[in-house]
Specification:
The protein is an alpha/beta fold. It is built from ten helices and twelve strands. Strands 3-2-1-4-7 form a five-stranded mixed β-sheet. A five-stranded mixed β-sheet has the order 10-9-8-11-12, with helices on both faces.
Length: 335
């Protein structure tokens, strides 16, 4: 029976220090440890509490998939990424490319995150190509941009070139693609769809937007908009489903704000598909049925055309797949 080759002492020590152990999914027969005939790309997605990683072929076939939790202190996230990369290098060999995504605005040269205030201290201007001692440049994307790219490559928007993505969770994130081009903007702000104004008399959010969509839908503001009655959007939706009149009113207002924002942005960006992901999207028909009505109320349906509303397919690994796609040069524009 084939045996798994042991990591060298220094790599094992690095992995133990970072809290990473090889799991069952990583235990391949020895003949597959360093594939020589298969081009391999790695996608790394740094989130708020965990790292998602995939190793895929050039056609997107999954070779490995890992999730590694971390505590946001002393750059533990960076140490754990380096340990994971060290393990995979021993077991898979050097990849044809590595891509990385993280919160914040990607730098112009795409080698780092240029702006990320408030958390993940040390992330700003960390050059990942140097840090991971990569033989090829590691392109860096904003996490929502990467999630959209992943869904277009191998998710809910395969083959589409005009797409919007909304991630509904603690906040409301987003990204947009027009004619196959991922919108990044002058300094990387493009696609922050959760920070459009729904109520100009509303309070300012963390991005200086008055009455933003994030205020109406993001979990971080649930206490505020329910006067402290609910602590999570899940609890609000559950109460609404059970017939609580006040919960139904609050939830309907949130969904209407989302529908108004989506409909308005459809009129601006003209997508074929609008993808909804994140924890709140798991409300399924309690979200999608009223949302469909509200979007159609606000959408300009020229010639009877309607943009499709779909749920994200790649889940928590969308950013990792998008980072891998970015590393291999995936270009939906076909240029």
């Amino acid at each position: 029976m084939s045996r798994i080759p042991k990591l060298k002492a220094q790599d094992s020590k690095l992995a133990r220090r970072a809290g990473i152990r090889r799991s069952a999914v990583d235990h391949w027969p020895a003949r597959h440890q360093k594939p020589q005939t298969r081009t391999c790309f790695w996608g790394l997605d740094l989130g708020g509490t965990s790292i998602k990683a995939v190793a895929v072929t050039a056609t997107g076939a999954k070779l490995r998939q890992r999730s590694v939790a971390f505590v946001d202190r002393d750059m533990e996230w960076a140490q754990k990424i380096r340990a994971l990369v060290s393990i995979w290098r021993k077991e898979l060999g050097e990849p044809a490319g590595i891509g990385l995504s993280a919160p914040g605005l990607a730098a112009k040269d795409a080698r780092s995150i240029g702006v990320m205030p408030g958390r993940l201290l040390g992330l700003e201007r960390l050059d990942w190509t140097d840090y991971l001692q990569a033989s090829r440049p590691i392109p860096v994307l904003n996490d929502a941009h990467a999630a959209l790219l992943g869904e277009v490559w191998h998710g809910a928007a395969r083959g589409q070139r005009n797409v919007m993505l909304f991630t509904l969770g603690t906040g409301v994130g987003g990204a947009a693609m027009v004619d196959g081009h991922l919108l990044r903007g002058a300094i990387g702000r493009a696609g922050h769809l959760g920070h459009v104004t729904v109520d100009w008399n509303g309070p300012r959010d963390d991005f200086n937007t008055a009455g933003s969509l994030e205020h109406f839908m993001g979990n971080k503001y649930i206490r505020e908009r329910t006067q402290g009655r609910f602590t999570t959007t899940h609890d609000l939706v559950a109460a609404a489903a059970q017939g609580d009149a006040r919960a139904k009113e609050i939830w309907d207002r949130s969904v209407r704000a989302l529908g108004c924002s989506i409909g308005s942005l459809i009129n601006v960006l003209d997508p074929e598909v609008v993808i909804l992901g994140g924890g709140i999207a798991r409300a399924d028909k309690l979200l999608f049925e009223p949302l469909e009505r509200y979007v159609r109320h606000y959408e300009w349906q020229a010639g009877g055309h309607q943009a499709r509303l779909v749920r994200a397919e790649l889940g928590d690994y969308a950013g990792a797949y998008g980072s891998a796609a970015n590393a291999l040069g995936f270009n939906p524009a076909g240029e």
